[in-house]
Amino acid sequence: MIEEKYERVNGSSSGSSGKWRAIWKWFFVSLLIAVIVLATIGEVVLHRAMPILKGRVLETLSTRFNSRVEMDGFSVSVLKGLEVSGDGLRIYPVDEVVAAGATDPLIALGHFSFHANLMGLFVKPMRVGTVHVSGMVLHIPPREMRKQAPPHARHMGKIKIIVDEIVFDDSKLILGTIKPNKDPKEFDMSRIVMRNIGPDAPWKYDATLVNAIPKGDIHATGTFGPWDNESPGDSTVTGNYTFDHVDLNTIKGIGGMLSSVGEFNGQLNKIVVDGTTETPNFSLDTADHPVPLHTKFHAIVDGTSGDTYLQPVQARLGSSDFSCSGAVVNVKGKGHIIDLDVNVPNGQIQDFLKLAVKTSPVVMTGKLQMKTKLHIRPGRESVSQKIGLKGGFTLGEIHFTNPEVEDKVDMLSLRAQGDPKAAKPGAEDVQSQMVGQFVLGDGKISFSKLNYTLPGADVMLVGEYTLDGEKFEFAGKVRTKAKLSQMVASKWKSVLLKPVDPFFKKNGAGAEIPVKVSGTRSAPKFGLDLGHKAANNTGDEGGK
Fold first, then answer.
1. Largest Cα–Cα distance in the chain?
2. Are the beta carbons of 221 and 240 closer than 8 angstroms?
3. Cα angle, residue 496 at apex, residues 493 and 501 outer, rounded to 5°
4. Distance (Å, rounded) from C-alpha 511 to C-alpha 494?
């Protein structure tokens, strides 16, 4: 009885265990089959997805840009949806531009990648959230390469992929030129984010780039497009920018930290820029005296040549307002030539002397009016060695900061008026004016005309002054209201000079005296230039 019960119980346990073993067996077999099926489906999907997606990418781009598209590498992974990547993608210009001689791809991508849902394979057009691109080069061919012919037939295809956003890293924009004396204009862009990527509407962008010379960070936001397939350089661009932490010391010969803000609009071939700059410590290496500089400018950047036209620049140096207009011209293999017309309607001479001349304090103060042409040649030298100025100026309310020089000027005025007894050190400063024509270059200023007018006298000089303030050399003549005999305090000296008066009296002046000014800023020398007088007399006689 007991044995019978045991067998029934034991048999029941054995049957239950066998059933579970059967269930687990079928479970693992089913799982294995499912894995095999999924792997097979994945393999099928992968093999089908790769040509499908590659075809969609190529067809979308060739349709959008109406041109030939090539790609070196393409891969797809289905482990996490659709992971797509490609290398060496190239989009070429339209056929007319290629026929005109364009050889570079219009757009070249080093690498791109994006993620999409598996269901995207069954939806047309497929929507992609973000495409990541690295190493893009956008090469805009010159407008002249577009043949004047009817547009060619469009590539027949459809837009099969819609992208919400593209993120570009380490990109470059090159504006080509066919002009033999011009270099292509290049812009390096560290990061660009483009949104709302549509075929017929402007694309929103957010771009960051590092400018090489002068070195600084540029951030710009705005819109780009619609893209012009026939003439990419005519594609519209708008935006606002900030240019921060700009180190002017990266330009040899000048210094300071600049910041700039502004806006721009136009086409890639021709961009109009309006902005302002602030440089609180602008300096030249000839003096190394920082002076605040503010500018407000309107400029046109010609992408076909790389030239920039300033029309105009309103500026303030220290407390002096001035304006300039002209061009920054790109010269192939050399850099840039800068040619500007500069107008200073009512400035302070001390602001310009402090910027350009090492002497401290500045030689003089006074009100300045000046018109000059500024030229900076291309080359690797310092800006102070390349810069050239040619023009004219008027100075009013002149005061010499060196007391010895000012005393000599004041005493000269009193003697020239016939009041030699008052001509003593510490005499009251006189009001004087200077008019000149000059050329600046090679570290010195050469004056072809320097007329200095003060009460009782006119001083007419020619000569040179070095920008380091260490040397000057002038010669000319002084025309005075008084005669020579009236310019000395001693009565007996006055009597002795009276016989000489007729020799110096000339052209209505009481006296016309040859003089020279030479030496250094610390030891100026003023004296008669009797040799110059004799030479002039000889010349006069020879002309009779």
1. 172
2. yes
3. 105
4. 14
Q: Within its chain, how far is the Cα of 328 from the centroid?
A: 10
Segment (H or E) for 93? none
Residue 29 has pLDDT above 90, yes or no: no
Neighbours of 72 (CB within 10 A): 9
Residue with tokens 């602001």: 351
Beta strands, E only, 107-235: 107-116, 126-134, 137-140, 161-175, 185-195, 203-211, 215-224
Distances (CA, A) of 200 to 42, 56, 107, 159, 228: 37, 19, 19, 12, 10
CA distances to 277, 371, 407 from 336, in Å: 21, 23, 46
Cα–Cα distances in angstroms (integers) from residue 539 to residues 90, 266, 543, in the given order: 78, 64, 6
Rounded to whole angstroms, the Cα distance separating 534 from 512 reads: 13
Q: Which of 194, 130, 138 is nearest to 162 (CA)?
A: 130
CA dist list (Å): 63 to 59, 91, 115, 231, 419: 6, 11, 22, 16, 93
Tens digit of each residue's pLDDT (9 = 90 or more) over 39-49: 554 554 555 67
> Is omega for the bond preceding 514 within 30 degrees of 0, making it cis?
no
| Residue of higher predicted confidence among 214 and 89 | 89
DSSP H or E run through 496: helix 491-497
What pLDDT does 329 receive? 85
